[in-house]
Amino acid sequence: MIEVTRLNGNPMFVNSDLIKIAEASPDTMLTLINGEKLIVRESCAEIIEKVLAYRALLLTTIAARTGMPGDLHRLVALTSVNPEMGAEGADFRTGTGGKSAAVLHFDSIER
Prior knowledge:
Elements: E1 2-5, E2 11-14, E3 19-24, E4 28-32, E5 37-40, H1 44-66, H2 72-81, E6 90-94, E7 100-104
Antiparallel strand pairs: 1-2, 3-4, 4-5, 6-7
């Protein structure tokens, strides 16, 4: 989840995987995959940076827990196809089409 700021200054957290479109017109409007629209103070570039930083945090956390910190490309490939490659704090569930998806338990992430 990423932290964004509503126009009134109140912070909120958004699941970055649910963002479908981010557009500036002139305020930044996030359209989620369910059609909900959110207007935030951050620019589209800031939203992208926050999403990339969050995803990097997830990957490095999993890499550290699996003992593969120097090989993130291999880790990403393995976690996308191998449900047995679970690590403490992460579990792997089968989604549609039999593909595995990593689910990270946020209560186990140290900041």
